[in-house]
Fold each of these.
Amino acid sequence: MSEAAARREAAAVLLPVASGVDRWVMPEAAMNAVVIADGGEALVVDPGTLPERAAELRAAIELRGDRVIGVVITHAHWDHCFALSTFADVASYAHPAVIAELAAHGEQQRDAVLGFASDETADALRALPIVAPTTPVESPHRLRVGALEVALEPIGSAHTGGDLVVHVPGAGVTVAGDLVETADDAQLDDSTDVPGWLRALDRLAAHAQPLLVPGHGEPCGHERLEHHRALLAARRRC
Ligand SMILES: [Zn+2]
Ligand SMILES: [Zn+2]
């Protein structure tokens, strides 16, 4: 394949969200890996499940001429963070609870996914090292990607024991992880804190950028926060 053809192929899978922000839909759980890029630098939010696929994403980013300078994990669910080993050479940022959760329950999560994975995916899942993020983010933290300012906001317990969102004011985008879903309803599990999630929705409504990138599904506006609020408020009452 010529380099020009390779560039076209890479461009075909990086879906534009806004200027400087693209997403790449991972086959596993149709999770949105998000790439924030400017001036030859790139930050990846949620590298997905399988290191091999994250390596394809990284190759596409590098083919565009961008160097990955860091990774952000929005929360400790396997479909968002199991591929982190592909980026072991750069800093990785997450809520401190993510690091604790992966140490305590990473293997449990792996066993749970193996219960429904295809044979091919199961082999890759068994082989992958579960890697914890290097840099706990306990309070709001700013990064620079080229000339773009990126703000990491640790939310705390909500969808999981430690969620974090990523604001890109220059692009009008907030990457919300699974605090916002458009592919499905809001997803709850044993680690979910419903009152915490309702508070998180209030914070997003007050401070988030106009365009939200959910963990799964198409980008959306703040109206989706209202949808989740109604659903979670009903859960709290039962
Ligand atoms: Zn999740
Ligand atoms: Zn998810």
Amino acid sequence: MLRPERDPDRPRRAERTRLERQRPQRPAWPTFKRVIGLHRPHLGVVALLIVVIVASALVGLGPAYLLQRIVDDALPTAAGGGSGSKLNALILAMVVLVAFGAFFGVVQSYLSNVIGQTVMFDLRRDLYRHLTGMSLRWFTSNRTGEVLSRVSNDVGSVQNAVSEALTGIIGNLIIVLSTFGLMLFLDWRLALFSVAFIPVFLFPARRVGNIQRELLGESQEQLANLNTRMHETLSVSGALLMKTFGRQQMEYDRFEETAWEIRRLNIRRAMVGRGFMVAMGLFTSLAPAIVYWYGGHRVLGGEASLGTVVATASLLGRMFQPVNQLMGINLTLISSLALFERIFDYLDLEQEIADRPGAVALTDVRGEVRFEDVTFGYRKDTPVLNGISFTIPPGKFGALVGHSGAGKTTTAYLLPRLYDVDGGRITIDGHDIRDVTLESLTASIAMVNQEPYLFHDTIRANLRYGAPGATDEEIVDACRAANIHDFIAGLPYGYDTIVGERGYRLSGGEKQRVSIARALLKDPAILVLDEATSSVDTHTERIIQDALAHLTRGRTVLAIAHRLSTILAADVILVLDHGRLVESGTHPELMARGGLYAALYNEQFADRAGAAAG
Ligand SMILES: Nc1ncnc2c1ncn2[C@@H]1O[C@H](COP(=O)(O)OP(=O)(O)O)[C@@H](O)[C@H]1O
Ligand SMILES: [Mg+2]
């Protein structure tokens, strides 16, 4: 099959595999041990499965043994003899054994599926729990598509490895060993002769498995890339950007390239070691001939019975399938380590922000917020905040102002511990926020973000997000206070209107007010508002400001304001400049001082006056 035409000059991004880059491979054993460890919580089922496997392996041996008895005892030989009733009994026994074997087979496949799916469930759940506990820093530095891909694609692909490996290895080993045992019992010379070639195949299998593991790891990586592209371009914001910049063709090409690479890697993985498998298969077909040749000579020499040779040939045939399967499992297992490595990588990520041992719950919050000489940087070498100190007394209104990029949002993020300070400390009612439980800390703070986020759900469900127990009356009250009730009530489905992913069916100001109502419903002691009126016109601003007046009553507020007109009444205005607190005081004090705040204020006033005149 030919790949569609492409521009030969365009660089091929997704071209080289890890294999070709010669990256060293990780040792398989620790990962393997950990995979085994995943079964520990389910030892009961595993034990039951082993019992069933053993039973079915033993039952499976019966027919070959009965075959020997039929040929040697029940059927007439050249010397005469034979017995019809014996033949009937032996055949009946064979039928019964086969029926039992089939029954055990069904139970076995049920149990192995249960184990495989349960291990997958455990991994999926643990991974989700772990990732939801990761810090914001981690989310801002990882691609959503990549993360999703690991949780869905990688975990989704391990099921086979887990259930197949367990039943496959144990089951087949038991079959191989017991079969070989019976062969030895029948005629050990013939038995040893028949299996002498098998070990030769064990060595290449490992190498093939390792190559497959590399290729699988690489194709999962590309699948994650593909997921990322899809996630970015098929989301509302991404689609909007792609369309307005007319980049569909470019995105299509990029997608096609990665998808083609996945195709290439998967074909290669399927074909690696095919030659080796063919050799195995050839040997399987030739084996009976070898047994009859050597066994036949032993019969001619009077050293073995005909029944023994027939039974040995049938046992050997029975052994080849499991040996083949063991090889296959070995391959699946080694290659699937690549999946587990990717999953374990994520499970091993350190949760940067977590409860300290002995953390206590923050209760009866009065709401005194205090920053003491706080220093912080997103990267250790570039500080964003430098020696910030201020106090907002309980129930007071504090406002943060400053140029864009001054560090206002960053300051707000530190309070609910979205990031931890690098130096200094932040206290609420005198408790260092790192000494209290995250759950109680976030319960006492509500945040209205710069870019409010809504889930693809009804307005009602979005509002209840911070207060699952809120009654419908409380919801309406909050929306009235946020000046959004009339708008919602006027929608065709009212509060049951679906807002669309990220709230794209609402305008910026409507979204802001829904998120204010959401914060109101949570009824927190401390409220953080990040530029709640930045993206709206003056009319909407006034409406939102009214809403905020309700919201801020009786709580400690840290408000970040772009429009300084919204914070004239603040109890304390904190002026940030390049990560430093350069001024603080009330509006009249700061105006009298004639510093940065006065300059910012005059600038805006001039703008507005100009706009009004124009
Ligand atoms: N997640 C981040 N990683 C690295 N740097 C960041 C991140 N977020 C913000 N910054 C940087 O930190 C500085 C302060 O940003 P921010 O607090 O958002 O400013 P403001 O809200 O005052 O406009 C800016 O220089 C910005 O580029
Ligand atoms: Mg900001």
Amino acid sequence: MSHATHTDTQGGSSVWSILNIILAIAIGGFALFWGGAFVLGGISAASKIRNPAPPAPAEPAPAAAAPAAAAAPAVASGPAEELTLKPDAVNPMAFNTKEFKVKAGKAIKLTFDNNAAVPLPHNVVIGKAGGKEALMAAAMKIATDPQGMAKGYVPEDPIVLAHTKLVQPGQKETIEFSLPSPGDYPFVCAFPGHSIMMNGVIKAE
Ligand SMILES: [Cu+2]
């Protein structure tokens, strides 16, 4: 019996020592946490002292970008850049030109001449600068829209900068627009099944 009691006491004391260890870890962790928070707070306070310098350059950046965008149309004034696009002679589900280079801010007159051996309707949808992924996604979406045909397969999406209607075989359409700032302006035919190959880019520099 006494042996059992002795064992119980030992068990009890070992439970207490475990609790003490847990408590010590908890207190240590608490101290470490607040100590760390204090150190981090100090670092953050120190960086806040240094911070007034970074926000200062951050403000001139948009200010510098705005005059550049405003200056671009003035620099690129003159007759409109005329671009012509056709279905490719070899692959009628691709455009004959994949890449145009123009001056940023310049007026663009783009003619899509749907003159191909294989009669297919096409459109030309131009996206905003850097918006290739979004434009391709929008083209895929309108291609599966039950009302797509009625909408000329023109995506209803803010990424669209300009577009032709759905141009029937043997017809052509000219659209006018301008590319406000330097960048890669994607274009695509959003007729179902065409966008994967029937796309390109207008590089405004
Ligand atoms: Cu097409």
Amino acid sequence: MKRDELIELLNRLLEAERSGVRAVSGMLKPLQEGELKEGLKKAKGDEARYVAGLHHFLKQLGVTPSGKMGDFADKLLAIDGIAEQLRFLNRGQGWVARKIEALLPTLTDQAMRDFFTEMLDTHRKNIAWAEKMIEQLTATVA
Ligand SMILES: [Fe+2]
């Protein structure tokens, strides 16, 4: 991957993760303590960690990181119902995971490889966790 393509992708991922933090923060607000809230708190911490990491790598590449935020959070928070919000969250997280899957084989920098390997693994785990939550939530309602 060319340097400018890498920078573009890192900035888009940064904007997506930043929007992820805001989306999950909004989802957390009305929730009572419990497994769902705990898991979302962890997911929020993960997303925030990736914002910081992407910021770091962009600065290392000598560019000013994007200060923008994707419109993902606004779209998610306009959705009614936590189960549907989780589904939408997983679509966003799936997009991020696919971008990283394509990026990883092109990376030569070991610190970046380690970072994105962990980011991909965590996204996959958080997607699986959210799927489990959706199943539980929809089983309760049905
Ligand atoms: Fe994410």
